[in-house]
Design brief:
Elements lengths: L1 E2 L4 H12 L4 E5 L2 H11 L5 E5 L5 H15 L4 E4 L14 H29 L2 E8 L10 H21 L4 E8 L5 H9 L4 H11 L12 H8 L10 E4 L6
Parallel strand pairs: 1-4, 2-3, 4-5, 5-6, 6-7
């Protein structure tokens, strides 16, 4: 089960899961976009898409209900969805604050409320959070975003500590500067091409290039698999050496 999955790294994880033969439930705001992905991958029997507004707690619950109806159980939950508003503390309006906390934290918390019950029933489960290098203190103009990512790390370690007795694992993957669709759109709005973005990142990141949407996938797939059966409470950085 992926919270997200239509774009960026979440979509790369979906494709990798499909290659492994996994059934995957994923979600997004646009049903035609989700259906297009299913058709292009020719995987109507392996994929379930749920149209969702992550500000709606009832729809989050319905996503869980429909996933269970379709696939009976949830072995792994990948929490990818998030938004990154650009605003410092002094520039943040209440609606921006509420939106980033609803999408980045509240939606994940309440999806976990339901998924955990199912995982406890089956006495197994792997939860993977997508974090950010902003989690420690973040850039000045990503204040609310940094707070949500830090809170998600606390939530991940909370789960690891309190739910290990049920066979449930929780780990946190720190995603660095990545040329996702959202990042490219943001830079385009600032008058920067993707090639200019790559050149800028190459000068800043210790490993010499911006991350692409496939770079975090091996870490996520490892954490989904039984190969990581004894791994919980971990933080894995896929950041090209970026520490803000």
């Amino acid at each position: 089960m992926i919270l997200g999955g239509t774009k960026g790294v979440g979509n790369a994880v979906l494709e990798s899961c499909l290659k492994k033969g996994y059934n995957v439930a994923f979600c997004g705001r646009n049903s035609s976009e989700g259906n297009k992905i299913i058709e292009s991958l020719q995987a109507e029997d392996k994929l379930y898409f749920h149209e969702i507004d992550l500000n709606s707690i009832s729809e989050i619950e319905n996503f869980f209900i429909q996933t269970i109806k379709r696939f009976k159980r949830i072995d792994a939950l990948v929490l990818y969805s998030g938004i990154t508003p650009i605003a410092s503390i002094t520039e943040t309006e209440e609606d921006v604050y509420d939106s980033v906390f609803n999408v980045n934290l509240k939606s994940q918390y309440f999806l976990l409320k339901h998924v955990l019950k199912s995982m406890i029933e089956f006495k197994t489960g792997s939860i993977i959070f997508f974090g950010s290098a902003h989690m420690d203190y973040g850039m000045k103009n990503r204040a609310a975003y940094a707070l949500t990512k830090s809170a998600l790390y606390t939530l991940s370690t909370h789960l690891a500590h309190h739910y290990a007795e049920h066979g449930i694992r929780s780990n946190y993957v720190v995603m660095g500067w990545t040329n996702t669709e959202g990042e490219i759109e943001l830079r385009d709005s600032e008058g920067m091409t993707e090639e200019e973005l790559k050149r800028k990142a190459a000068k800043i990141l210790p490993l010499g290039r911006i991350c692409n949407r496939f770079d975090p996938v091996p870490a996520v797939m490892h954490l989904i698999s039984d190969e990581s059966a004894m791994t919980t409470g971990s933080l894995i950085r896929v950041t090209a050496g970026q520490y803000i």
